[in-house]
Structures are given as C-alpha cells and as structure tokens.
Design brief:
single chain; Arc Repressor Mutant, subunit A; 3-stranded antiparallel β-sheet; globular; Tscrpt_reg_PadR_N; Metal_resp_DNA-bind_regulator; PadR-family transcriptional regulatory protein; WH-like_DNA-bd_sf
Length: 109
C-alpha cells in the first residue's frame, strides 16, 4: 500500500470543507485561497482547486463576481451563498464529531 496515496485521499476528503472555511469571512480569488491552504501546510495544486470551485458554485454553495485588477486581468472573487454558510455550519458540526471520534480511537492504548 502506498502511504502517499492514502495521505492524498485524506487531504482531498477535507479540501471542500477547508475552501468553504477560507471563504466564510470574506470573498477571495483563487490564488488567495491557494495561498491560505498552502500556508496551512495543506498541499494543493491549482488543477484540483479550480474544478472544485466550479462544482461548489454549480451546487449553489458559492457565487462569484469579477473585479478589475490594477496588475493584470480582472479577478474572479468567490464567496459563500446563504446555502453555503448553512452547509459550512453542518460541516463544522460533522468535523467536530468526526475529529472527536478519531481522537478517541487513535489515542487508545
């Protein structure tokens, strides 16, 4: 079994939750989202994030707006919809339960 594949699958499993969490306070464009994830040591590539943002938008959890940039082409800023905020609230509860359960199991002797 390849440990790197398992690690990658674990990261993919929480990526949607992390992206929604990044956007809970303010809108951001893709490179800001990527920087936040990378600064948190969550290894992510653009090719993974763009399709996920599109899917989250198509699911009604995100919206976007174009904003002119002083240095280059306009930027697409993503933000949570009302449905996205509710979805994130549910994920926060589920994450807390899951994290508690995993901590109990992995800390047993």
């Amino acid at each position: 079994m390849n440990i790197e594949n398992t690690k990658a699958q674990m990261r993919k499993g929480v990526l949607e939750f992390c992206i929604l969490s990044v956007l809970k306070e303010k809108d951001a464009y893709t490179s800001e989202i990527l920087d936040t994830l990378k600064n948190a040591k969550l290894l992510v590539v653009e090719g993974t994030v763009y399709p996920l943002l599109t899917r989250l938008k198509n699911d009604g959890l995100l919206n976007y707006r174009w904003e002119e940039s002083t240095s280059g082409p306009p930027r697409k800023y993503y933000g949570l919809t009302d449905e996205g905020h509710e979805f994130l609230k549910e994920l926060n509860g589920t994450w807390a339960e899951l994290s508690d359960a995993v901590n109990i199991i992995t800390s047993q002797n």
